[in-house]
Structures are given as structure tokens and as C-alpha cells.
Specification:
With about 525 residues, the chain is an alpha+beta fold. It has helices spanning about 5-20, 40-50, 460-465, 480-510, and strands at about 65-70, 70-80, 85-90, 105-110, 115-120, 135-140, 145, 165-170, 175-180, 195-200, 200-205, 210, 220-225, 230-235, 265-270, 270-275, 285-290, 295, 310, 315, 330, 335, 350, 355, 370, 375-380, 390-395, 395-400, 410-415, 415. The chain contains four helices and 30 strands.
Length: about 525
């Protein structure tokens, strides 16, 4: 198929606009970095390091601003093209506060030449507080620029002049380039006043919810560090379609396909319901839909957008009103282990759905110890082993199901929410009846035990005690509506006689006393 010229031009313009919108710009709209005059350009420095495919304009970024270090980091001076004797270092991140001068820890001194390389071991470093770190550049007359842009000294004067471009290395895993511009309130924008590479870093900021842009349940994601940068990783993988009002296989259609419900049931607005008939109708508060299922009257004419379900006539989030068992989270209406479908890079471990550097390469909080799986847990649980469905808290095993409210009224068993048993929305499950057994009445029912029920017929009392029951009764050779009505009348008469005999026997029994 030939694409019209006008459409092709529009697509090309859109592509260039998308690329341009991703470029880093200064407050005056200058795209950075700019080519250097005289010295090798920033692109040439990266090409020398075999960074194939890394483009300094297209791949420039000002994030991530914070990092989690590995057990140790290695840093190298790649270029130093400034007239100033700049120094480079790190500091502990404190949320909402600029770093103190006493917390600026130098890695590269003012005279370190190009090619200088050193290693810092955080496990034995007493100045590291065990959390996230960020980086800084110090340049005379004394200005300090930070990877956290909110703390730049000229932010109010220059309207946010960019002093640092960050690049995710293609040649070195978990490594970042830090390209600095050292002039206060503006410069030549070549970003090679000091160019550093630091490895064994995990970008911080993971764990936030995000939209992957995919359809159905695949749209919900969690921000994770992937190949050195924050990416939106889907938290729910596609699966076989089921009747739940969601697009489980992520093909853009909800509850589509065959075999979603058992025989004689139909999928109606995310619920498997028994087939009903217009003649018999449904119970109070329910109506027989055009698809042949009893549905809540309030939801009968409601069509919810993808990813929402109708409850009580209102389209709601699938997780609304759900409290999952301990250590599980609700995602698209189901309680799941947040780490079950997540694969972490390198030696990272998943903690509550977020990939993190394992301990002891990061310090545990007060009252926690580093376990052999690289995760921090309460110290008083170190010697406690809990059975399936329990977890350790304050040194004791506790039921993971305690306080859980499972989706659709399902039961919580051994720390896992079970799928509820599908039932007709218009029929009460038991209507207060005694349980069925081998087909004989109980001794106190007023009927001799040697009188069996018709084992080939339905339970008359169960069918007729609730007028919402959706039964269609017929006798051999009787196909007309009148035949069905007669059969129901005969059953009702039998039931009335049966009840009359029970009442008579009970009156006789009481009169004897």
C-alpha cells in the first residue's frame, strides 16, 4: 500500500519533533552540548572509549540525579578541558535538603590528570550513611554544582542553567558519564570542562508507578533501573484471557475468546453467571441481560472503560476495597507477589517490587540484619522459621491472611487469595437449608428414613424457596410453555403436601407432651 506524500511528510515531521523534544536545552532554548572550539568534542571523547551508538545530543539526560552505589565504585577522569582546577566528589543524599559542606567527599583532586583511575569501597567507608549518593563539581571562585539540580547556586539567576549532562554507558555495565559545565550562570555549553565515568552504580528513584503505554493489564508498570537508566517496566505480564472485566492478554479487547466460563454460564461484565431466561427472570435487584445472564440492575446499562469494573452501578478501580495478605500487593484486581514477575539485573535483588543493591553492599536500617539472600529483615527474626502462609514480625510468626480482604470475596488460604466460586448472581447459595446428604431426609424431618427422594430430579425445596431460581423444568415429550408451567405446578403441589405432612406430625408430637 502506497502512503500518501502528505502523510509521509507528516510522519517525518512528527519523528523529528519527537527527537527534538527529547533533547536537553538551556533556558534560552540552546540545544546542548554544543561542539567545542579547538579541543576534541564530547562525541570524540566517547568514541575513543568505544561507546558505539552513544550520541551526545540524542542521548543526553539530566537524570538520574541520585544513585545507589555497589560495594565499591571505580571512577576515571576521561577529559579535563577547563582553565579551572575542578574537583569531583560525592555526598550522602538527604531528602529535601542541600548537602552540607562537611558532607562533600572528594574523589578526584584539582590536579588529577586525564586517565586517572581510583576505587572507593563503601563497605568500609565511615562517611557513607548506607543510602543513596549524588555527585558534585567544585570550581573556583568557590562554586559547587550538584547532580541534584534543585541545589545549583545559580538556579534563581539563570532560570535553571544546566551544568551536568549524564550518559548511560553502552560499553561498561552499570556505568555513567558525568559531563560538567563549570561557568556560573552560563558557559560555552561544550560540557567537557570535566568528564568523568563512574561504574557500579544503580540509578535511584525506582518503585514509582508508571504507564508502559501497552494495552490492558500490561499498561501498569513500576519504574526500575534498566541498563543504567530509569525505565517503566510492566508489573503484570500478559496471560490467558479470563472473565474478569480486564484485558489479560493485552490485545486491546476485554473478556474476548471462548471458554472463559464453565458450561451453562456466560461472561457478563467480568463475572461468570448462570444462563437465565426472560420467562423466569432473576431475583430482586437483578435483571436478565440480552446476553442471557442475571446482572446487577445498577450495572445492567453501565459500560466501563478498559481496566475498570462495575460495582453497584459505578465504574471502580479493580483494587478498590481490597486488602491483600501480608507481603502481597493488589495489581489489576489480584493479590500477587510484587517480585514474582520481576527480573533484576546483575546481582540486584527484588525488595517489595523494586530492584535494589543487595546487602551488605548497602546498610540495613536500625533493628535489621542482612540475610544470606541479600535482603534486610528484622534482626529478631534471624532464628525464626515460619510455616507456609506465615511471616515473621517482632520475632514471632504471624498469619499472612490476618485482616486480608481478597478480590471478589475469595478466601485467603496459607497467605494466598483464592479465586471465589462462581455463582448465579440472582440465587442465594443455600437459602438457609440444611446440607444435602445421600438423598434421604434427616430423622427429625417427620418422614420415615426409608422413603427416598427422587435422585434423578432436582431438589424441589432448593429450587422453589427462592423465586429468583433460574430453572427450566420439562417432562419427556412436553416442549410447550404450558407443559413447563404444569410441571412446575406439580412440583409445587408435591412440596405443599410434603410441608403439610411435616406440620401435622410436628403438631401431633407436641400434643403428646
Amino acid at each position: 500500500m502506497r502512503v500518501p506524500l502528505a502523510l509521509r511528510c507528516a510522519l517525518i515531521c512528527w519523528a523529528f519533533a519527537a527527537i527534538a523534544s527529547a533533547q536537553v536545552r538551556q533556558p534560552d532554548n540552546t540545544i546542548v552540548p554544543q561542539p567545542s572550539s579547538g579541543a576534541p568534542s564530547l562525541q570524540e571523547y566517547l568514541n575513543r572509549r568505544m561507546e558505539v551508538g552513544l550520541d551526545v545530543t540524542r542521548d543526553a539526560a539530566v537524570t538520574p540525579e541520585r544513585f545507589t552505589p555497589g560495594c565499591s565504585i571505580r571512577f576515571t577522569v576521561v577529559a579535563r578541558d577547563s582553565g579551572y582546577n575542578n574537583t569531583f566528589g560525592w555526598y550522602n543524599v538527604v531528602a529535601g535538603r542541600a548537602p552540607l559542606a562537611s558532607d562533600l567527599h572528594e574523589l578526584v583532586g584539582p590536579t588529577a590528570p586525564e586517565g586517572f583511575t581510583a576505587t572507593l569501597d563503601f563497605r568500609s567507608n565511615p562517611t557513607w550513611r548506607g543510602g543513596e549518593i549524588a555527585f558534585y563539581l567544585r570550581t573556583p571562585p568557590p562554586y559547587v554544582y550538584y547532580s541534584e539540580r534543585a541545589y545549583q547556586p545559580d538556579r534563581d539567576i539563570s532560570m535553571g542553567f544546566v551544568h551536568l549532562l549524564i550518559y548511560d554507558s553502552r560499553a561498561t555495565p552499570n556505568a555513567f558519564y558525568f559531563a560538567w559545565e563549570d561557568l556560573f550562570n552560563g558557559g560555552d555549553n561544550d560540557f567537557q570542562d570535566l568528564l568523568m565515568i563512574v561504574d557500579n552504580l544503580v540509578c535511584a528513584g525506582g518503585g514509582d508507578r508508571c504507564d508502559t503505554g501497552e494495552p490492558g493489564v500490561c499498561a501498569q508498570g513500576i519504574r526500575q533501573c534498566r541498563s543504567g537508566t530509569l525505565a517503566c517496566v510492566r508489573s503484570t505480564a500478559p496471560s490467558m484471557e479470563r472473565c474478569d472485566g480486564l484485558d489479560n492478554d493485552c490485545n486491546g479487547a476485554v473478556d474476548n475468546g471462548d471458554g472463559l466460563c464453565p458450561v451453562r454460564q456466560v461472561c457478563e461484565r467480568g463475572v461468570c453467571l448462570e444462563v437465565c431466561t426472560q420467562e423466569l427472570g432473576c431475583g430482586s435487584g437483578f435483571v436478565c441481560s440480552d446476553r442471557g445472564a442475571c446482572v446487577d440492575v445498577a450495572c445492567a446499562t453501565v459500560t466501563c472503560p478498559a481496566g475498570r469494573v462495575c460495582r453497584g452501578g459505578t465504574c471502580r478501580e479493580p483494587c478498590e476495597g481490597i486488602t491483600c495478605p501480608t507481603n502481597q500487593v493488589c495489581r489489576v484486581g489480584r493479590c500477587v507477589d510484587p517480585c514474582a514477575s520481576l527480573t533484576c539485573e546483575g546481582d540486584q535483588v527484588c525488595v517489595a517490587g523494586v530492584c535494589q543493591t543487595p546487602c551488605p553492599c548497602h546498610r540495613c536500617s536500625a533493628g535489621e540484619s542482612c540475610f544470606t539472600d541479600g535482603r534486610c529483615r528484622p534482626s529478631n527474626c534471624a532464628a525464626v522459621s515460619c510455616p507456609e502462609g506465615f511471616y515473621c514480625a517482632s520475632g514471632a510468626c504471624r498469619d499472612a491472611c490476618a485482616g486480608a480482604i481478597c478480590p471478589n470475596g475469595g478466601a485467603c488460604v496459607r497467605g494466598v487469595c483464592q479465586a471465589p466460586v462462581a455463582m448465579d448472581a440472582g440465587v442465594r447459595p443455600d437459602a438457609g437449608l440444611p446440607p444435602r446428604d445421600s438423598g434421604f431426609t434427616t430423622p427429625d424431618a417427620g418422614i420415615p428414613r426409608d422413603v427416598p427422594r427422587d435422585l434423578g430430579a432436582p431438589d424441589v425445596e432448593l429450587l422453589l424457596v427462592d423465586p429468583s431460581a433460574n430453572c427450566v423444568c420439562s417432562a419427556p415429550g412436553a416442549t410447550s410453555r404450558g407443559g413447563r408451567t404444569s410441571a412446575l405446578g406439580a412440583l409445587a403441589l408435591t412440596l405443599a403436601i410434603h410441608r403439610g405432612r411435616r406440620r401435622a406430625r410436628r403438631r401431633q408430637s407436641r400434643s403428646r407432651w
